[in-house]
Description:
Helix content: 25-40%
Keywords: Cytoplasm, Methyltransferase, rRNA processing, S-adenosyl-L-methionine, Transferase
EC number: 2.1.1.193
Low-confidence stretches: none
Protein name: Ribosomal RNA small subunit methyltransferase E
Main location: cytoplasm
Distance between the termini: 20 Å
Radius of gyration: 20 Å
Number of helices: 8
Structural class: alpha/beta
Number of strands: 12
Oligomer: single chain
Catalytic activity: uridine(1498) in 16S rRNA + S-adenosyl-L-methionine = N(3)-methyluridine(1498) in 16S rRNA + S-adenosyl-L-homocysteine + H(+)
Amino acid sequence: MSNHSFVLDPEQGAAARVGDTLQLTGPEAHHAVVVKRVQPGERLDLLDGTGLRLVVEVSSAAKELLTVTVLERNQEQPPEHPATLIQALSKGDRDLQAVESAVELGVFTVRPWQADRSIVRWNAAKADKALAKWRAQVRSAQKQSRRTFEPGVKELVTSKSLAAAISAHAAAGDLVLVLHEQAQDSVTQAVSGWLPAAAPGTGVVLVVGPEGGISDAELEAFVAAGARPALLGRHVLRASTAGPAALVLVRHLLGEL
């Protein structure tokens, strides 16, 4: 098994075949050579973010330039039922903690949500910088967990636009679950009931509220749009742990773990 993973440009990966020599430059090469100090003879994983994994052997490592030989080429398929995490903005970077863990645990898409009770607020000037931070966190977690697919990070939604997004997900056949402590049905019951008739490509969307919880008005709007409240367990989890915990359960129920 290789020791480290690095991101490969999709175009470069598409053309690569076993036996080819590739040269990596830019930030990834710098990180490999200067930070990770990879040496000739080491094996690495190169990931293009769209399912391709190249297992390579380092031929030479110079400053800002990494030369490798392709040993294996593996193209993975996306999950039959991809999972999405819609995470409310939370203080203390707990939202980022949730995203990082979710990526390591197999989430396919993440989306920030500015809930009514979110203490953290993204104004227009802050949104671009904050989204860039989320994307950097996703890529870092992808490399750390050696995932071939880089999860997508969608634009920020408000509660109103989230209701519209839920309606679109439901219309497409996705199962949208709002984690809520007063829900009657469990996540297990909801997923188990949906899965037998689920079409390939449809997924499970998990909506996680902020520290102060989801308001009654938000819950009502989300249910009207096609979401289902779902209970994760007897204990109330932090905003940073609820999504990842639900994700593990969902992927287990989907047969992916």
